## 1
Amino acid sequence: MSNPAVTKDKRSTKHNAYTLILNRIGIYAVIILLVIIGAIVAPGTFLTVDNFGSIVQAVALLGMSAVGISFVVYSSNFNDMSAPMTISFSGMIAVATLGLGFWPAVILGVLAGMSMGIVNGFLIGKFRAHPIIWTLAFNFVMSGLVRWAWSGRQIYPTDTAANNPRAAELFISISRSDILGVPIMVVVMILMFIVGQFILTRTKFGNELKIVGSNYQAAKLSGINVTRSTITVYLIAAFCAAICGIFLSSMAQTGAFFLGDGYDFRGVTAVLLGGMTLAGGKGNLIGVFGGVISLGMLTNIMNLIGVPTFNQWFVQGLVFLFIVWLNSFSDRKLGKS
């Protein structure tokens, strides 16, 4: 006899050709659409090698941050809302310690960012703190501490490395240097995507993370150390954010508490646009790379047609809302949610 208290889910799971296409080729269909739109609204400007090179360079920092956020999303921890301060804090520590030399400053900057990842991972992994609430609160705490430590001021490489001008010069130049004509930032971003994709798809940790993201309790019962996995994903996210912060401070030629603003939502937008879901355990970094590029193309098109910056943020917000809905809709139609 059936239990009358149990209500059968009557929502349709029928799918059509459009749903299948969306699921199979995903973000790269969006990229093709953006290429067509760009060619129409900005003929002679959009479809050039220089413009596409500018797009990739413009999203390099976002790409670095998105790689780290991908691991957090994949593990079903939603997002790292402390990414903005991890970026800012890493850059400020690197700038502040340039008097010790270029490499010591870079290493200290990365370690500073990763220390935030350890705190996040331990509290969320060990004590099951809510990932959104905790990382958002931690972001505010670190923002207050950083503002207090430097009295709300920006710091400059030429000042902090007055006794070591060569270190300041190297630091400022890294965001403007290239390898065989390819900007170093782009090279680093691509390497991060390659290594990240390998970790997710070709390692034991990646396989375990898929189980953790898909079903936390099942992962725990199967003997996977979910606490260690959670700490690791936040360490990876913090490492990627720290590298992003060092390049960003180099580009701005300053260390400031506000440099990382917006990278949390822009990063998770790229991740979700690339096919990952907030439910976890789905997607890969090939798709996320497409998400990063598509956001860059969207911004580039808006710049070419003269859309004001504040309106661009409005459009990106709408894109974020749309892809969250579309992501859920597509999964539901394919019987995956």
Note: The longest strand covers residues 178-179.
## 2
Amino acid sequence: MISVKCRQCNKAILKELRRVNENLKLRNNFYCSRRCQYEYQTLKKEITCENIECGKLFLRRPKAYSTHNYCSRSCAIHVNNSKFPKRESIFKICANKYYFKKFNSKVKYCSMECLRLSKWHTPSKILEVIKEAYDKTGRTPSRREFEKISKPLIRFFGSWNNALIAAGLTPNRSHSQRMYRRVNTTAQDGHR
């Protein structure tokens, strides 16, 4: 039997040699009772966060102490990034004039969608495309035919019908107008 000390209360305990060797090998502590073991493992001490800007008080068990104690991962990241900066990020503004997005990359546009939309980045180009579609089909084009330019179109004109009016065309009736507001007109063959 060998005498060892309790980790919590420092009381001398007699243990068999094989138990002592086993605990040393597994890096376990010695306790005189279950109560001491529980008190040691649940014993928390108040520590201040090492982040100077935070300085928050928090509880931590003795087993969880480390060389640097922070209240959260974000505090640890903040301190480490300030001590060891990797590189400064350079932000660019998207090349598409009407999308003022800041992004960090080597390319001109912030996304592939923005690159696709850059072709339609002026109201005059959008109106030209709508007029060309009218000349080809001989009718007022529907919004479904222009899904690619719907975002910049709505940004400039507010709605599809406003864009048609700006292009000098009569807008299509909406579903609500078809249901409730019937318009009496004369067809090409002469009947109403």
Note: The CA atoms of residues 95 and 109 lie 5 Å apart.
## 3
Amino acid sequence: MGDRVKSVTKKCKGCGTEFHPKQGRLETNEWCSRECFYRSHRVYTTCRTCGKEFYHLKGKPRKHCSRKCWDGSEKHPPNFKGDKHTSGKGYVYIYAPDHPYVKDHPYKRVAEHRLVMEKMLGRYLHPWEIVHHKDTIKAHNDPDNLELWVTGHPNGEEVAQIYIKEIFQLRTRITQLETELEMRVN
């Protein structure tokens, strides 16, 4: 512990008692103890999830009394109206608690571009299927702007382009085989 200067006495801002501040903190120390500092900086608030009253420090506001209430508020907040949520990366997510791929996810949200593609196809997407934005704007989820890709193909290729390449390769091989067959016959 630091040495206390006995000749200097100060009056505590919180409780009013006189105390001797530590050396080196004569100008900055205005409270007799940490407890007194925290007691004078408490702000009481009502938890938005459970309604319980709790306190936080001035300048560090909180909306929930605990991590459990904060997690619960994200799952189904009391004022939830089915609004969209935009992630930090720019993707739009929609609350869809009945979707099969969110059963273990705490927030029950699905990317909007995947929901749009599922509606276009009339089925749920497989985990290996990727929905690509043609204009690279992640929040632009119009059906005309979306392409279905599959993992395992080079980046930048649409599924239709892959099939076109495969068809072209097969036609080229068929032409080669026909040429070889004609040479054998003649």
Note: The chain is about 30% helix and 20% strand.
## 4
Amino acid sequence: MLRKRHKYSRPVSSRSGISRSVILLTALLLSACSTVNFDYPKQASFASEEVADTDLGEAYDDWTELHGENSGFYPLIDGIDALGARLRLIEAAEKTIDAQYFLMKGDTAGELFAGSLLRAADRGVRVRILLDDVFTTVKDDELALLNQHPNIEVRLFNPISRRGIYYLNYAGDFKRANRRMHSKSFIVDNSLSVIGGRNIADEYFQLKEQGEFLDFDVLTIGPVTRGVSAQFDDFWNATKSLPMEALSQKFSDEDLERVRREIDEEMAAGQLSVYAKAVNSKHMLELVNGSAKLYTGAATVVNDTSEKLSNPVGEQYMTLVNQLEELTFGAEKDIVIINPYFIPTEAGLEYWRKIIDRGIDVTIITNSLSSTNHVTVHSAYTRYRKPMVESGATIYEARSSKDNPRTLHTKLVINDRRYVFVGSLNLDPRSIDINAEMGVVIDSPELAADILDGLEEALESEAWQLKINDKGGLDWHLVSDGQSTLASREPDSSAWERFLSVFYRILPEGQL
């Protein structure tokens, strides 16, 4: 759908002494890089099937008895609800918790999450935590503390060696280190799960005064949860998932006890109010008292397998995008795409033209230059937005401002007001070709219609529509409070941001 192969060669001249010196220095530095021992012994484990005697397991059985193969879904639109759902599920856990994330930070959300998992483990719950290594900023000693608990095991996916210089280790083994697990899943008692685009950090849960990420998760119950568990088990037992013990750092009992005290103090102090706000939000209370509306529909987990990251880039391993192509190409009326990072490539541009030429309405909502947190990605996207509009696609870009900075991070595809894909997939070459992704396709006209109705209301005042002007260029159009606004260049952006957007076009889009 959005694939384009590029080969880049950078000839190096050896004619000067300076060039030879640089090459020699680089070789010496890289030769000093440390590697990771992926043969470190570990015990395979899997989602528990013995959960029928838990409260959540009983809820699962009651659901399936009533709805058969259809699963239930509750959208988590507000960040505080998404945090509350995770914390409530941790409170309810009796046997198992499986958490899989691309990144986790040591901020308020991270401390709340870690502290809650510790308390669940103290109750006897088995906790498995799988984190991609590169962008996770939680300190190793904090992860080691969690891992030290007899009921908690922490694994890092495709970690970088802790010996030597971290960034040189990354560069020295770039071909391996560049392949990342971007999937996100959270499963409790193998009965309920949360899937979507959120990582564990303040910006995803409305805990930052500025810089909120507009994201989307779904809370699930029913057969789809077992598919989410199977995806987790695949990555948990993969060769590239390494136990914390395999890393070089060693921490004393005193170090670990200090970290535990810090987490306990954070949980007991200012974070307690955040915890209470999250678990007692209006929507969380509706879920607890049974008045919340759950959408019902058949659902399929779609995901790349861990095998994708153990093999060279190839279409045969791009399971998720191949399945998503079947969904979008089978559309009969319309497709709505909400995605923060949209780089179709030339191949994808032709793909979308074919769909539009069949009479399918294609609408794309993505980030503007002012709202994106990755100017490099936006720079590559700008090559394709005008050709997409000229082909007949409708494109909106999210608003942001200095007074109210926000970044779109939602990943949704809605077909024919019936099928809803929600997951971790960005529509760019990195997610499609290089990383591993996951999501779920839900067959629910009611869910699709409600999402689209809310979206249509928000688009009027919260997004710029791109249109071709009389001179053949792009204009940005906005209707807010009944007032129309037109911009002839990237709205709400600075001259520096616009310069960077142009400058970054030198980067290879295949890595973005």
Note: The mean pLDDT is 90.
